[in-house]
Specification:
Order of helices and strands of chain A: EEEEEEEEE
Shape of chain A: elongated
Structural class of chain A: mainly beta
Mean pLDDT of chain A: 97
Oligomer: heterodimer
Number of helices of chain A: 0
Helix content of chain B: under 10%
Strand content of chain A: 35-45%
Radius of gyration of chain A: 14 Å
Order of helices and strands of chain B: EEEEEEEEEEE
Largest interface: A-B, 27 and 24 residues
Chain lengths: 113, 123
């Protein structure tokens, strides 16, 4: 099972918007809405910022949003802030029944210029 | 408040079996739909999903590593355990455990994570 494909890097100035893609297949992203996004700062555990494609946990700023079209999920950060500089990972449920599993994306390093 | 913490040996020799324990509080693995997932991250590399054990002892594994992974739980100690058999240097990573929610305000996601424990495979 291959990892979901994310761009290695993305960048923007404070206040700008960026969108990170996460491309999978019909066996994972294309079939399920169990897609989450995580933010990871250096040396820290990942933090959940989006679940079930577009839902935000309480406490996560509204500038983070998620969507899905076909086999590709996307994370948009609107109004980029310096503290948004981090690595971002998507994850999707995959397979089916007793052979189901989860698969992460390759990760995207976001730089705030 | 949900918390998790991983513990394991800092160094394991090649061909040995690696065992990482996840001690948790603030939730019960008796609750329907709840699980504990395992994820690892080699130094400087991406996250890799490994396995998941559910409240009813059902388990799921990464297809690429399935034959080397085993997940179990000890309800009396509020612990989950991951074993990785026949390790080699490519298994060097920070190992994380995470609470897999059943429903509610974080859906069916891995919403709470432990800080991780670094395990190095070296002779």
């Amino acid at each position: 099972q291959s990892a979901l494909t994310q761009p290695p890097s993305a960048s923007g100035s404070p206040g700008q918007s960026i969108t990170i893609s996460c491309t999978g297949t019909s066996g994972d992203i294309g079939s399920y809405n169990l897609i989450s996004w995580y933010q990871q700062h250096p040396g820290k555990a990942p933090k959940l910022i989006i679940f079930e494609v577009s839902e935000r946990p309480s406490g996560v700023p509204g500038r983070f949003s998620g969507s899905k079209s076909g086999n590709t999920a996307s994370l948009t950060v609107s109004g980029l802030q310096p503290e948004d500089e981090a690595d971002y990972y998507c994850i999707s449920y995959a397979g089916s029944g007793s052979s189901s599993f989860y698969v992460f994306g390759t990760g995207t390093k976001v730089t705030v210029l | 408040q949900i918390t998790l913490k991983e513990s394991g040996p800092p160094v394991v020799k090649p061909t040995q079996t690696l065992t990482v324990t996840c001690s948790f509080s603030g939730f019960s693995l008796h609750t329907r739909g709840v699980g504990v997932g395992w994820i690892r991250q080699p130094p400087g590399k991406a996250l890799e999903w490994l396995a998941l054990i559910y409240w009813d002892d059902d388990s799921r594994y990464n297809p690429s590593l399935r034959n080397r992974l085993t997940v179990t739980k000890d309800m009396s100690r509020n612990q989950a355990v991951l074993t990785v058999a026949n390790v080699d240097p490519d298994d060097t990573a920070t190992y994380f455990c995470a609470h897999r929610n059943a429903e509610g305000n974080t859906g069916r996601s891995f919403d709470y994570w432990g800080p991780g424990t670094l395990v190095t495979v070296s002779s």
